Amino acid sequence: MEAFVPEQALEDFQKTVLENNPHANMERIRQAFDFAVAAHEGQKRKDGSPYVTHTIAAAAIAAEMGLDDESIIAALLHDVLEDTDTSYETVSEKFGKDVADIVDGVTKLTRVQYSSLEERQMENLRKMLLAMAKDIRVILIKLADRLHNMRTMQYQTPEKQLSKSRETMEIYAPIAHRLGVEKVKDELEDLALLYLDPVGYREITNTLEKRRLIMEQFLQEMEKTIEDRMAKEGIKCKVYGRLKHLYSIYRKMYAQHLGVEEIFDLCAFRVIVDGLADCYNVLGIIHEMFRPVPGRFKDYISTPKPNNYQSLHTTVIGTEGIPFEVQIRTWEMHMTAEYGVAAHWKYKSGPSGHKEGDEEKFAWIRRLLESQQDSDAQDFYHDLKVDMFDDEVFVFTPNGDVKSLPAGATPIDFAYSIHSAVGNRMVGAKVNGRIVPISYPLQNGDIVSITTSNSSAGPSRDWLNIAKSGEARSKIKQWFKREKREENIQQGREMFEAEAKRVGLAMTDITDPEMLPHILKRMAVQELDDVYASIGYGGMTASHAVGRIRDEILRNRAPAKKTELEKMQERADRRQQQKPQKAVQGVLVEGLDNCLIKFSRCCTPVPGDPIVGFITRGLGVSIHRRDCVNYKRDTDGGRWIKVTWAEETSDFYTAELHITSDERSGLVMDVATILNGLNARVRSLNARDTGKGTTVAAITLDVKNAEELQTIVNKLQTIRGIRDINRGGV
Ligand code: MN
């Protein structure tokens, strides 16, 4: 173990920071460094080194992720609130409120208790952490903290190794993935795998070790082959070859029941280019150089992944029959892929006075920032805050289960979300061990326990105003309806009489023995008390009840007017029937409102196509094109139903195109280029050679209507060698 020399550590650290951001404010960062060293003075890690080495390492990772000065300072200080007697106020005074808030956020995340949960709960826990973080930098620093802890896990007890690794695999790696920080995600997964399945881990590393020389040679040769060829074609690019990360190999082994030696595409190459057009050019050239593996081409440029990842992926067969994957992307896409949301900070312009050499190096980043020009710096920063779960709050039960409730929810909502019996017998609540009022707004991460009593008198009417969730409110109303009929009748009658008086309706008119049967029939009740009870528990308003009863009295009282009223009623009824039917997903089904609609996969109808519906057993109505073979062939005539497109159709419909063409290289690229040029929303594009001189390709894409689809087909037909394009299902 090397002795810790603060001056040396500072020098190394400074180097890392400046390498990643030449404009970093070293003055402030150095102050934070000294502050952390002093605050953690005397504290040791499990391996005997000074505790502060951990926070310095986490800050170095934050710097490598490209985070800003505030984040690097906060990372240096991320454990001072939890582990030293430094206060929030001190941090805020010395380093500003932003830094103090970030450190405070990281501390809160660290306090969340984790236990292994079922998958649905796990997703809630991930959301809880993201929601608690508020500022996305909090979660990124937490990832840096966890990454360093995992790198030094060998000094911990086996129990701790296991529980931290599971937490990393189930919570932190998926969060890193969601934020698009793939580099951190890959390393977290590999480190966790080492402890979760040491045997599987070693099986892979041993095999890779044996084949390392061959593969390294292969990687180098391929890098050069591809770079040379691109240079000849006049395309500027950088090629990086690498082995895939261990956990991705591991997952493949287990998903496909293969041994390591049976997994071929262990190698992957990234070709990084300057502009979008070059991506498709490189793809075409790669497919000319090597034979593509059918069905492996994916265009994540026109259809990015949910975490904004963009790239073209293809798998090809290299020399000696070794398959490998190629990812093609621009530098901008590359930064987003490696650092995700963190990429937004990387090289964010520092103080003015750039050094000469920086200009070229940062040109592409300027372009990236320019594309964001219309949003000013402040908005840009706001966009990066985590507000995706603003309408939800996540809390724990005493057993460690996670409950998701509407934002602003109270212990009442929590109690009813567990069980109505818990809510109805609730007499008090504790949050994190402390008694709170039942109107306390729950905070993310709170541990909530409900005190119940069998002698409880039940919920109070005020609770209806305090509860935030529909679930709690309807359960409270149910209780009043059932348990408190007498009280409801009493209260409801008072409200009813007051309303009747207000509109000038005498109670004697209502209780008139001639009139009462008509009224009861109209209200569909046995006795007037039922109406009062309903008003009392809140199922009906007094004005609604009085209004209907008054109508009924008028109708029955004057025969002359009665016909007039009846005519009016009839006209209203007719209007009711004629009112436009409600369309579902842009389709009107004759005689059916709101039924489940499903677009058939065999013929993928889109607006503009003549269509017909088929009444499925239990799955609603499936929509086919009228020229679909399944419609023409089917004899079960009774189950076909008339359907039409609504005047206004909803957004997009999935359609399929089948292309047959002469077999030739560059075909897929031509197709992709045209689709890209038309801004087509492509979901997948698969092509394979039939071996009989033709290539067949299937494209799945989202279109607005048949017209748009036809435009695409017309354009595709101009491609050299195309023999036929059809929509399938015929
Ligand atoms: Mn830490």
Structure characterization notes:
This protein is of the alpha+beta class and 730 residues long. The protein contains 32 helices and 21 strands. Strands 1, 2, 3, 4, 5 and 6 form a six-stranded mixed beta sheet that branches. Strand 14 and strand 15 form a beta hairpin. Helix 4 packs across helix 7 (97-111). It is flat and about 100 Å long. The chain starts with 5 loop residues before the first helix and ends with a strand. The model is unreliable at 345-388 (pLDDT under 50). The structure holds manganese (II) ion.
**Number of distinct helices:** 32
How many whole angstroms does the radius of gyration measure?
Answer: 34 Å
Number of strands: 21
Helix proportion of residues, in percent? 40-55%
Average residue-wise pLDDT: 82
Derived from helix and strand composition plus strand pairing, the structural class reads alpha+beta
- Based on CA inertia axes, which overall geometry fits? flat
| Ligands and ions found | manganese (II) ion
**Which residue ranges are poorly predicted, with pLDDT under 50 across at least 5 consecutive positions?**
345-388
Cα end-to-end separation: 74 Å
Strand content: 15-25%
Report the major sheet: 6 strands, mixed
Question: Secondary-structure map with pairings?
Answer:
Blueprint: H1 6-20, H2 26-39, H3 52-64, H4 69-76, H5 80-83, H6 88-95, H7 97-111, H8 119-133, H9 136-151, H10 158-178, H11 182-196, H12 198-210, H13 212-232, E1 237-243, H14 246-256, E2 267-273, H15 276-289, E3 291-292, E4 298-299, E5 312-317, E6 323-330, H16 331-339, H17 358-361, H18 363-370, H19 377-383, E7 392-396, E8 402-406, H20 411-418, H21 420-424, E9 426-431, E10 434-436, E11 448-452, H22 463-466, H23 470-483, H24 485-502, H25 507-511, H26 516-523, H27 528-537, H28 542-557, H29 559-578, E12 587-589, E13 597-599, E14 611-615, E15 621-625, H30 629-633, E16 640-641, E17 643-645, E18 653-662, H31 667-677, E19 681-689, E20 694-703, H32 706-716, E21 722-726
Parallel strand pairs: 2-6, 13-15
Antiparallel strand pairs: 1-2, 3-5, 4-5, 5-6, 7-8, 9-10, 9-11, 12-17, 14-15, 14-16, 18-20, 18-21, 19-20
This protein binds manganese (II) ion.
